[in-house]
Design goal:
The chain has 111 residues and is mostly helical. The chain has helices spanning 2-74, 77-82, 96-102.
Length: 111
Amino acid sequence: MKDHIISAVSQIDTRKDIFWGAVALIGMCACMYMYLVTVTVRNIVTNRQLSAQISNVGEQLSAKEFSLISMKNGVTMDYAQTLGFAEAKEKVFITPTSVSVVSTNTQGNTI
C-alpha cells in the first residue's frame, strides 16, 4: 500500500511537471506569435512607405527629364550663335592611331 501511495504521488508530480511544461510551451508560442505578427506589420508599413518614396522620386526624375528635354529642344543654331558659338568649318575625327598620340603628354607619361 505504501508503494502504491508513493507511485501515485510521483505520478501526480510528473503530471504537474508535464502540465506546467505544456503551459510554458504554449506561453512561449503565444509570445513568439505576437512578436512575429508585430514584425510583419512593421515590415508591411515600411514597405508601403518605401513604395511611396520610390513613387515620389520617380515623379521628380520624370519632371527633371522632361525639363532636360525641353531645354535641349530650346537650343537652336540661332540661339547658339547669339551666345558666340560657331559651326566648325573643318571637322577632325579621331582615328585609332591619333588616340595613342593624344593619350601621351609631352613627358611621355600616359594619361
